[in-house]
Design goal:
24% helix; 2 domains; alpha+beta; 7-stranded mixed β-sheet; 10-stranded mixed β-sheet
Length: 467
């Protein structure tokens, strides 16, 4: 009877042990404490063609140059006092010069001229002061050149046409005094020219427009929601050709030397420093670009995305199964350690190691030579060797894949939406084309996977007009 009870108790304990999950206690392979790899990011070039219409310059010049534009209220020095107002809007057009870039500015004006006639004899002043209201049109010609973000002008007064010939009443007769007024033009000629130069210079300061556009363009934008990938542009230098006046617009070819990165995870911060951007003159700006994109994925973000691949998946043999609850990866000895937290017939953490490789056909990063680390493998052999079977390891391996190239390809469509007349700001338009994404290689750091990808195509960011 006693023997029967002992056998029954042993059988019950055996059945109970078979129906209870096994606990596997494995040693964690600690990550390397190596310094991060410093990777080389080759610069890329983006075109920034700028088109500024003369009408925009005209509008800004009219805003800046308004009302009283010249005031000489000292009659003592030259017997003339002159005040000049802008009578109507200024017009600016192409001067149709054949040799140099020139614009023609037409300024309708109103002038009040006080002219005194007389002498000073033996301390006695005998003067007669007359006031004349005049109106006319000043025509100015300006040569144009580009200097440090601004289109500078060198203006000369070409002509001054009075609407009515100036006259004054003298001894009962209206006597023309154009011969008196026109010499006075010499007194304010240079000042009017300077007024026009200063106004156009302020109108043509396109640096704020360019920098505002760059701040928007260089603000990281999401390329793919599933992989939380972001494209970040980091400008280095701005190049510019000489401005050319064509018909009714100034055309200026600019180019941006920059680094382009693709980061995965939380939204990265912008790295543009507008105070360090300089404008360098060049003869020509290239059209075709070969952008070197660095795809950076932290192990934390890669682990989180791979965990999604295991969600709802069961692995096992016969009635013995496990499900992966969480995945963590890190770098050790040139390989990736993949930690799988499992529940089911076995509870605990399984550690695998492998080499990250790129599958060009599937456009994925996978882990080659995937195997259990030594301590994990020994524990499995003693407690759950069914997990060490090649067929189960192969199924697990299928889920240990992490797409960087795929999200770039998906992001290509998103990028193209930004290259189809996309306007981040009024007057700024982004156009271009992407021909291909070509994978180069994978590098590992102590905290991230870095994929180097070459992107061929064209990007043009045109700035049309001034605000």
């Amino acid at each position: 009877m006693l023997k029967y009870i002992v056998n029954l108790a042993f059988l019950c304990s055996l059945l109970l042990s078979c129906s209870t999950s096994q606990k596997i206690n494995t040693l964690r392979p600690e990550p390397d404490d190596a310094s991060p790899l410093i990777y080389e990011n080759s610069p890329s070039f983006i075109n920034l063609p700028i088109n500024i219409k003369l009408k925009d310059i005209e509008n800004k010049t009219n805003l800046l140059l308004n009302g009283l534009i010249y005031d000489d209220n000292n009659i003592q020095d030259d017997d003339i006092e002159i005040k000049i107002w802008k009578l109507a809007p200024i017009t600016i057009k192409n001067a149709n010069a054949t040799s140099k870039e020139k614009i023609e500015t037409v300024l309708p004006l109103k002038a009040i001229v006080k002219y005194r006639i007389g002498t000073k004899t033996m301390g006695v002043e005998l003067y007669d002061t007359r006031e004349f209201n005049l109106s006319g049109i000043v025509t100015l010609i300006s040569e144009v050149s580009l200097t440090n973000w601004q289109l500078k002008t060198k203006t000369e007064l070409k002509s001054l046409e009075w609407s009515d010939a100036p006259t004054m009443s003298l001894i009962g007769k209206n006597v023309p005094i154009t011969y008196l007024i026109n010499p006075a033009i010499k007194l304010f000629k240079s000042k009017i020219e300077k007024k026009i130069d200063d106004a156009i210079s302020k109108s043509m300061d396109f640096k704020p427009n360019v920098l505002e556009a760059l701040e928007v363009i260089c603000n990281p934008f999401r390329m793919n929601d599933n992989y939380e990938s972001w494209l970040r542009i980091i400008p280095i230098e701005i190049y510019s050709t000489t401005a050319k006046l064509k018909k009714d617009s100034f055309e200026l070819q600019m180019g941006m030397k920059c680094n382009m990165e693709t980061l995965i995870g939380a939204r990265p911060e912008s790295k543009i420093d507008i105070n360090k951007i300089t404008l360098k003159p060049v003869i020509k700006v290239q059209n075709q670009i070969k952008a070197n994109v660095v795809a950076v994925s932290s192990y934390y973000d890669a682990s989180r995305i791979i965990t999604k691949n295991f969600r709802g998946q069961e692995f096992g043999s016969g009635g013995k199964k496990i499900t992966v609850q969480n995945v963590s990866i890190w770098h050790k000895d040139g390989k990736m350690v993949i930690a799988l937290e499992v529940l089911g017939s076995v509870n605990g953490v399984l550690y695998l190691s492998g080499l990250p490789k790129y599958d060009d056909e599937k456009k994925e990063i996978y882990f080659d030579e995937l195997e259990y680390v030594l301590d994990t493998k020994n524990k499995l052999m003693r407690t759950a060797n069914w997990l060490a079977q090649a067929i189960i390891l192969s199924k697990i391996k299928q889920n240990c894949r992490y797409s960087i190239q795929t999200n770039l390809n998906d992001g290509k469509r998103t990028i193209m939406s930004f290259l189809d007349n996309y306007s981040p700001l009024p007057g700024i338009f982004v156009n271009g084309k992407i021909e291909e994404f070509k994978f180069k290689k994978i590098e590992l750091t102590n905290n991230a996977i870095i994929a180097l990808v070459t992107v061929n195509g064209e990007i043009n960011i045109s700035i049309n007009g001034l605000k």
